[in-house]
Amino acid sequence: MSIRFDNRVAIVTGAGGGLGRAYALELARRGAKVVVNDLGGSRDGTGHSDAALKVVEEIEAAGGEAMSNGGSVTEYEQMVEMVARAKEKWGGVHILINNAGVLRDKTFVKMEPADFKFVIDVHLNGSANCAKAVWEIMREQAYGRILMTASSSGLYGNFGQANYGAAKLGLAGLTKTLYLEGAKYNIKVNTLAPTAGTRMTEDLFPKEAFDAFSPEKVAPAALYLVSEDAPTNAIIGAGAGVFQAAYVTLTQGKLLTGDELSPEGIAAHWAEITDRTGEMVPQAGGEQSMSILRKLQGQ
Ligand code: NAI
Fold first, then answer.
1. 253 C-alpha vs ligand 1 centroid, how far in Å?
2. Which residues form the Ketoreductase domain (predicted)?
């Protein structure tokens, strides 16, 4: 059965190019009305352009429906206004893909606090701003699909990306609470960690890899994760047509008592504490406390 988005209104942030553009085009092709948001700045977040408008023109030329928005995800009021316009024109907002992003890569020793704050502000606060701007509407509709964009740099680390990595893992964290709070209202929240040849990665990929890792090969994951039958609380990796799942896990662990309840005890039992046999994937924070209680009860 084909996955369609007829009568759905989708907002894609940072959709003036790269991955966001690919998501917006494909959503529109499959029937969604799309708000193409983009500030149109350079890779480090400076400047403005009409990038969003051009993607709207592409969508319309292909027979789709779209509206452009040049607001910045860092400005909550602008996002509230963007959402209000979409609701006014199309009657609701069903899908939010938080995709806008910037880079200010530097090793931590050279990174100024301002560069740290700025990157956190665009990715993490920007995504929270947009989620907050649509949250009430999605609750009222009892329908919402939100996708956060993380990165392997956040999930696993990357030299020179302390600011970006912190923001990106923060987004996986934001997903994990919003999915719990949204469940009752049929709001599903997922995280995508893409790998694609875009201007963000153009100096990292050799030419052939750049082409093999096209944004169009990531788009199927993004679309599935905001579809009617989407899962919730998933962290999915996607690049060049390969799709993976990432998990935040917890080992069974070891109960230490008496003299062993000490740094020396930790050192002595490190192998058991970190042993991955019987590893769990908690679905909420409280499950860690429950697993501790089970351990105390000798289960
Ligand atoms: P891109 O630079 O082509 O796209 C990012 C877009 O966000 C740009 O069009 C930019 O103008 C827009 N933007 C930046 N600040 C904004 C703001 N304040 N408000 C509204 N729009 C703003 O890069 P790409 O690769 O398409 O990145 C999309 C997302 O995927 C980003 O969140 C990025 O961190 C993430 N990502 C990309 C990877 C890759 O391999 N390309 C790897 C991991 C994550």
1. 39
2. 8-184
